[in-house]
Design brief:
The protein has a single domain (2-75), classed as GIY-YIG endonuclease, CATH 3.40.1440.10. Helices cover 36% and strands 28% of the residues. The protein is built from three helices and three strands. It has helices at 23-31, 55-66, 68-75; strands spanning 2-9, 15-20, 44-52. A three-stranded antiparallel β-sheet has the order 2-1-3, sandwiched between helices. The termini are far apart.
Length: 81
Amino acid sequence: MFTVYAIKSESDGRIYVGFTDCVERRIKEHNAGKTKSTKGFIPWKLIFTENCDNRELARKREKYFKSGCGKEYLKKIKPAL
């Protein structure tokens, strides 16, 4: 199983979308600066997850959430208090 996830930078509000087989590990990697594209915008907070049965479906969903419509959907998500 794979999980599509979205994280939001607490420093400037940008949203990053990816997919992984272990969300907890991946978020720690982002916040430790181990990902080149996200290390300049630490800290990151998880705002969205969606489970997928296989890598192919996860990749399709990731591409959707990186598109204009998908990003607009993610921007409307209100963070949990």
